[in-house]
Design brief:
With 417 residues, the chain is of the alpha/beta class. It has 2 domains: 5-189, Rossmann fold; 197-404, Rossmann fold (3-Layer(aba) Sandwich). It has helices at 35-49, 76-83, 97-101, 118-121, 133-156, 191-204, 224-231, 243-250, 265-278, 319-330, 351-365, 375-383, 397-404, 410-416; strands spanning 14-18, 53-57, 87-90, 108-111, 160-163, 187-189, 211-215, 236-239, 254-255, 281-284, 287-291, 300-304, 307-308, 313-317, 334-338, 369-373, 392-393. It has 14 helices and 17 strands. Helices cover 36% and strands 17% of the residues. The chain has a 6-stranded parallel β-sheet, sandwiched between helices. A 6-stranded parallel β-sheet has the order 10-8-7-15-16-17, sandwiched between helices. The protein has a 3-stranded antiparallel β-sheet with strand order 12-11-14. The structure holds adenosine monophosphate. Adenosine monophosphate binds next to strand 14.
Length: 417
């Protein structure tokens, strides 16, 4: 049964909470962006304020075993400060029995990086490069077997389980999915997960029409499933960024040196066909900002996006294209945006992406529901100071993409089951 934390009584209960504290650290182990920590604080505070205690678990980076560089001890002080209580630290997530048992109402314990153990992800480590298929299969079976004890141990620390880690909701890991079965009546989503789930629902299932999706980024191949799923839902589909050139080339356009995937051209044409059949309006850039050099002070020229000279490359959406997209956005009641419409990393080619951020903020002000996800799109709204001027900014790149592909995310399904 699906539960949210507002309908649960935490008094005297120990909650084990999966959060995503995978924050960037500099060479002195100082946190350079604490967004993910701040995002989980409301859930943790709620439990503490209601007289419960929290056992916090997370991964950090991609360690291949125990590695002090990826220790969560680096963030204990910061979490304590944000949470407003001193956070205790368990140096081994599998040996925290005594510390968990001693927790009193209002107290917090952070477990060491779950990924110090291969069992968290359930994938074998240290396999020889020339391992045979048999050996790989045996190693996988072994880690799956030991994973059972790993999960059981984590579950033994607490009375209830909260998943508030949307960033890893698309992974069927020990702490994100498998642990839920130990709490059949005491598992729930934290506030962050609840917000993400409702935001996706507002777009995919309960959208006010017209619904427009703006999908950008480098490659068609990584967004193919997204585009296919959206065709059944949206009224308008804006395709921007590098992936647009595969569509333009597939239709016979000249795209010069622009990024494209020849092998995806049949898929691109199939998408356009299906869009036509379903009455979806597709907008692909007509005018491209082009360059001959990937640098901030490079000379740029505008060309029709299907007539780019052989030695030029399209790197951003041109002003005429942006004007056309502006009309579509202004006429939409729900807008989903994922992926940059240009080479966002280079300020000179980031103008189109920043303009989309601005148009979304404007649309929100005029009553539209707007959901933004994906690293560059989120960076663009943040950079423009619009993070609070759009309806929802997703914290999970990969998880959000899989959700808009229409997939059931293991972290969500495990709570709902
Ligand atoms: P994705 O991870 O698929 O969302 O793609 C993001 C990447 O797409 C960013 O690194 C952008 O620089 C890149 N990108 C967007 N538009 C273009 C373009 N016209 N040419 C080359 N790369 C692009």
């Amino acid at each position: 049964m699906q539960k949210y934390i507002d309908s649960y009584d935490f008094a005297g209960k120990k909650a084990i909470v999966r959060v995503d504290f995978n924050v960037p650290l500099d060479e002195n182990f100082k946190i350079t962006d604490d967004t993910r920590i701040r995002a989980a604080i409301p859930t943790l505070k709620k439990v503490l304020q209601e007289g419960g205690s929290v056992i916090i678990m997370s991964h950090l980076g991609r360690p291949k075993g125990v590695n002090p560089k990826f220790s969560l001890k680096h963030i204990v002080d910061h979490v304590s400060e944000k949470l407003g209580v001193p956070v205790q630290f368990a140096e081994d997530c599998q040996k925290a029995d005594a510390q968990a048992a001693a927790l009193k109402p209002g107290e917090a314990l952070l477990l060491e990086n779950l990924r110090f153990y291969a069992e968290e992800e359930g994938k074998p480590r240290g396999l020889a490069e020339d391992a045979t298929d048999e050996e790989k299969k045996a190693a996988k079976a072994a880690v799956k077997e030991s994973q059972k004890e790993f999960v059981k141990k984590l579950a033994s620390y607490a009375d209830c389980y909260i998943n508030d880690a949307f960033g890893t909701a698309h992974r069927a890991h020990a702490s994100t999915a498998l642990i839920a079965k130990y709490f059949p009546d005491d598992k729930m989503f934290g506030y962050l997960m609840e917000g993400e789930i409702k935001a996706i629902d507002n777009v995919l299932h309960n959208a006010q029409k017209p619904l427009t999706a703006i999908i950008g980024g480098a490659k068609v191949s990584s967004k193919l499933a997204v585009l296919k799923n959206l065709l059944g839902k949206v009224d308008n589909l804006i395709i921007g960024g590098g992936m647009g050139y595969t569509f333009i080339k597939a239709q016979g356009g000249k795209i010069g040196l622009s990024l494209h995937e020849d092998e995806l051209m049949p898929d691109a044409l199939a998408i356009l066909e299906e869009a036509k059949a379903k009455g979806v309006n597709v907008y692909i850039s007509d005018q491209a900002v082009c360059t001959q050099e990937f640098s901030n002070d490079a000379v740029t020229k505008l060309f029709p996006a299907n007539e780019i000279p052989d030695d030029w490359e399209g790197v951003d959406a041109g002003p005429d294209t942006l004007k056309e997209w502006e009309k579509v956005i202004a006429n939409s009641k729900t807008i989903l945006w994922n992926g940059p419409v240009g080479v966002f990393e280079i300020p000179a080619f980031a103008k189109g992406t920043l303009r989309i951020a601005e148009l979304l903020a404007k649309a929100t002000e005029n009553g539209a529901y707007t959901l933004v996800g994906g690293g560059d799109s989120v960076a663009a709204v943040t950079q423009m100071g619009y993070a609070k001027k759009v309806s929802y900014v997703s914290t999970g790149g990969g998880a959000m993409l899989e959700a808009i592909e229409g997939k059931d995310l293991p972290g969500i399904a495990a709570i709902r089951e």
